[in-house]
Amino acid sequence: xxxxxxxxxxxxxxxxxxxxxxxxxxxxxxxxxxxxxxxxxxxxxxxxxxxxxxxxxxxxxxxxxxxxxxxxxxxxxxxxxxxxxxxxxxxxxxxxxxxxxxxxxxxxxxxxxxxxxxxxxxxxxxxxxxxxxxxxxxxxxxxxxx
Length: 146
Hints:
Blueprint: E1 2-7, H1 27-30, E2 33-38, H2 40-43, E3 53-56, H3 60-64, E4 69-72, H4 79-96, E5 100-103, E6 114-116, E7 124-126, H5 130-137, E8 141-144
Parallel strand pairs: 1-2, 1-5, 5-8
Antiparallel strand pairs: 3-4, 6-7
């Protein structure tokens, strides 16, 4: 059976920044994949709940190229922490031979098509999170569930 990586919060695990989870959305995937849950932010050592973070100055590709940063709402730079979580997620993909990841849109880690714009105003822009960017660069297909 093929392996896929899935954002833990999409599997009903309370690991979002606000300590909440989504309803388990894995039902459609269970028949096709062996599911490996990941939360890049927890893998990097961030607590749950944690302060809201957004990418400032671009998207995940820009973060990996040192052209943007991941910042907390209070102004703390957590770029290195988000890169660490992305690298750990990539390592799990390699260990499990996962070629696809199903991630949560809008997240500074997992955003697939859109992220928040870095102003902490709730506005969204086209772009990807740090983990999505690193997985994409390493030829791991990334899809969004919601």
